[in-house]
Amino acid sequence: MTIDLKTVDIKPLRHTYAHVAQYIGADKAASRYLEGTMGAQSETNFHYRPTWDPEHALFDASRTAIVMSNWYALKDPRQFYYASWTMTRARQQDAMESNFEFVESRGMIDLIPQEVRDQALAVLIPLRHAAWGANMNNSQICATGYGTAFTAPAMFHAMDNLGVAQYLTRLALAMEGPDRLDAAKEAWLVDPAWQPLRRYVEDTLVVQDPVELFVAQNVALDGLLYPLIYGTFVDDRIALQGGSAVAMLTAFMPEWHDEANRWVDAVTKIMAAESEDNKALLTRWIRNWEEQAASALLPVAEMALPGTGRAALDEARQQLRARLGKTGLAL
To answer: If we measure between CA atoms, which residue out of 216, 264, 276 comes closest to residue 67?
Structure first.
C-alpha cells in the first residue's frame, strides 16, 4: 500500500477580526498589539451610571477636558499588550536578579564607604512611597480614562511603578535591613526635606481629570525625578564615590524610564496635534505641574547633591523642556 501526501493551501477568508478591521482597514493583517487594543473599549455595556459618579457613564470620554475624535489614535509605540509587556519585564527581572546575585556574592555592599551608603539610603528609600503614589495614580488613569490604547499602557505603568517600589525595598533590605524601611517611612512622614514632595504626591491623588493626572505624574514629576535621582545622583555621584553596587541594584529604573518616555511622549504629541484647544490645555497643565514638581523636588535635590542640587534640578528641567519640545509643546 502506498500513501500519497499532498500539500493543500487554505486561503483565509479574512486576515483579522471585524472589530479590528473597522479601525485599520478591511482585509489587512493586524499585529497582536492591534488585535488586543483596537475596538476593545467597552461602550454599549454597563449602561447604568455608577452611583459614585452619576454625572458620567461608567466608561465616559467626557471625564477629561481633552477631546479626541479617535481615542485609538493614542497607540503605544512599544506595542505593549499583556504578553509582550510580561515577556519584556521578565527579561529585565532576570537581569536584575543577576545584578543582586553578583553584588551579594562578591560582598560589594560591604565595600561601599559608610558615608556614601548612608547618603544613598537616605535619598533613595523614601522614594518607594512616591513610587507607590505613581502606582495609585496610573491605576486611577486606567480606571477613569477612555480608550484601550490609553488605559491599558497606564495599567502596565502602574505595575511598573509597583516594581520600582519593590526594588527600592529590596535595596534597603540588602544594604541594611528592615529598620531602614521604618526610618525611610518616618522621614517621608515628618522630615521637612520630604514634605513638599509628599504633598505633591497627595495632591495628585485627588486630581479628577485622568489626562491632567497623566501630565502631573508621568510627564511632570517622573520627567524630573528620574533624571535627577537615577541619573545625576546615583550614576554621576554615588557610583563614582564607590557605590557602583547601588547603580547596579537600581539599574531597572533609568532603563524603564527611558523606555516609558516613548509612550508618554507619544500620547502627549498625538493629543496636542489633535486640536489647538488640546495643545493650549496641555501646555497650561504641564507648566503648572512642572513648576510644582520642581519646587517639591528642590529640597530632595539639595539633600542628595549638596551645593549642586539646584543646578542639577535646573538641568533636569532643561532636559524635560527639550523632550516636550519634540512633542510640539513648549513650556
So the answer is: 276
Task: Dihedral sign for Cα 228, 88, 94, 185, please.
Answer: positive
CB 245 within 8 A of CB 124: no
Segment 56-108, tens digit of pLDDT:
988 899 999 999 999 999 999 999 999 999 999 999 999 999 999 999 999 99
Give the global pTM.
0.93
Backbone φ and ψ for 101, nearest 5 degrees, come out as -65, -40
The single-letter DSSP state of residue 150 is: H
Condensed to tens digits (0 to 9), the pLDDT of residues 170-215 reads 999 999 999 999 999 999 999 999 999 999 999 999 999 999 999 9
H-type alpha helices, 31-147: 32-37, 82-105, 114-124, 127-144
Task: Name residue, grid cell 503614589.
Answer: 133
The Cα 142–Cα 240 span in angstroms is 39
Neighbours of 256 (CB within 10 A): 21
Left (φ > 0), alpha (ψ -120 to 50) or beta: where does 224 sit?
alpha
Q: How far apart are CA 21 and CA 12, in angstroms?
A: 15
Contact call for residues 204 and 217 (beta carbons, < 8 A): yes
HSE-up of residue 102 (Cα within 13 Å, Cβ side): 12
CA-wise closest residue to 135 among 75, 87, 205: 205
Report d(CA 162, CA 131) in Å as an integer: 7
Is the separation of the CB atoms in 68 and 61 below 8 Å?
yes
Helices 127-144 and 178-190: angle between axes, nearest 10 degrees:
70
